[in-house]
Amino acid sequence: MIHPKLFERVLGLANLGLVVLDASQTIVLWNQWMASHSGWSASRVQGNELFDLIPELRGQRLEQAVHTALVNNLPTQLPQASNRTPFALYPAGTWGGERMEQSVSVTPFTEGKERYCLIEVSDVSTTVGRERQLRGQAEALRAQSYVDGLTGIANRRHFDVALDRELRRAHRNGNELSLLLMDIDSFKAYNDHFGHQQGDACLSLVAEAFAGMLQRPADLAARYGGEEFAAVLPDTGPAQAQQHAEAIRARIAALGITHAPAAVRNHVTMSIGVASFDKNRLADAESLLGAADRALYAAKHAGRDCVVVDSAQDAAA
Ligand SMILES: Nc1nc2c(ncn2[C@@H]2O[C@H](COP(=O)(O)OP(=O)(O)OP(=O)(O)O)[C@@H](O)[C@H]2O)c(=O)[nH]1
């Protein structure tokens, strides 16, 4: 039989909050940990009904859990996501400021003929803080990443950096540089017919085939966004870029991926716009992308599944 004094000492030393309520939800025990983190001594709170003393707990999951314990004799571990700071608890001696993050469980028990419930509160601030930090770091890493998560080819960020770098080289050395912008035809219809998941699988197949068509180490195949892809082709003039684009278009068509009935072809196809660096007209990323985009739009307008070269370039050629 444990000595009452010893038992009291252990309760005082416990590194978690222990609150016992009787069947009428009156606080019969409020341990030292609760006192030092709330600023409310046991003598102040014991004898009070918990939800009268702390009205903000009314309507919360804790009230429900206490009810479940006292009425249905069932324990509850409060879900972390619902309310991480139910009690106004603070790191010892710092009442005010940010509340401690808490993990709370409620357990019923019977002593003699009386039903009670034990509320255990532990401080999970460190774990939650670490979780937040890790999530923040993961997000930062993703933002810094140069790889598209779905297709595994370069992402838009990588593409922007590569285009900038190659444009500076073209200016410096007078080298040629071309850009392809491509878009899967009637992809909305594909998604609508086969579902988004199969749409994602289709994007991955197309990306793999497209990236496989670019052979030179300096060429860059990227997912530009959604169902749009792009390629940076250094040391490549308009005529050669058009040839590349045509080969890519044919390769995608040859994959023979069944398209939705509403699409122009019964297999998945791509429209491609081509624009090339021109120090007098298309000398920066914005104008080069604008020209490629207009060419892509023209390809869509021409019936899709085709390649269109930026018109001024065409005229100059
Ligand atoms: N499955 C999937 N679909 C995407 C993704 N990104 C964009 N899309 C879909 O791609 C479709 C693009 O549709 P639109 O811009 O209307 O063009 P379209 O149907 O391809 O028609 P055209 O380009 O004119 O031939 C939209 O339905 C988008 O929801 C993605 O990551 N996965």
TrEMBL record:
PROSITE patterns: GGDEF, PAS
BP terms from Gene Ontology: cell adhesion involved in single-species biofilm formation; negative regulation of bacterial-type flagellum-dependent cell motility
Domain called PAS: residue spans: 3-73
Pfam families: GGDEF, PAS_4
GO cellular component, one term: plasma membrane
Main enzyme class: transferase
Transmembrane segments: none
InterPro entries xrefs: Diguanylate_Cyclase (IPR050469), GGDEF_dom (IPR000160), Nucleotide_cyclase (IPR029787), PAS (IPR000014), PAS-like_dom_sf (IPR035965), PAS_4 (IPR013656), Rev_trsase/Diguanyl_cyclase (IPR043128)
A single GO molecular function term of this UniProt record: diguanylate cyclase activity
Catalytic activity: 2 GTP = 3',3'-c-di-GMP + 2 diphosphate
Residues covered by the GGDEF domain: 175-312
EC number from the UniProt entry: 2.7.7.65
Protein name as annotated: diguanylate cyclase
